[in-house]
TrEMBL record:
GO terms for cellular component: plasma membrane. Its main location: membrane. It is found in: Cell membrane. Keywords: Cell membrane, Membrane, Transmembrane, Transmembrane helix. This is Small multidrug resistance family-3 protein. The chain crosses the membrane at residues 14-35, 41-60, 69-87, 93-113. The keyword Cell membrane applies. PANTHER family: UPF0060 MEMBRANE PROTEIN YNFA. It comes from Nitrosospira briensis.
Amino acid sequence: MHGALLKVFELKTFVLFLATAVSEIVGCYLPYLWLKQGQSIWLLVPAAGSLALFAWLLTLHPSAAGRTYAAYGGVYIFVAVLWLWAIEGIRPTAWDVTGSLVALAGMAIIMFGPRHA
């Protein structure tokens, strides 16, 4: 791929990973609210929808499934730490931030590194 086209591909991939991570976290957080915080069992309905969306979003990536899942893990870690801060109100530590950045670097290496045919 050429420079500008590669940048668009990278941005689209990252945004798709972000949406995938949010849908997975929501799908897991809602049952957590029911089980651990006594909220309504009806939270399982949107949780199931969110997890179905998560699975569908993973299929939209053009890379092989194993590579997609491996790289997705890095974005998931990053989004989970943002969730910790934005939703749970717990400020990430320097170690949380550093670990997230290392995970994102791993994602970038896996997804955007040179490929041989």
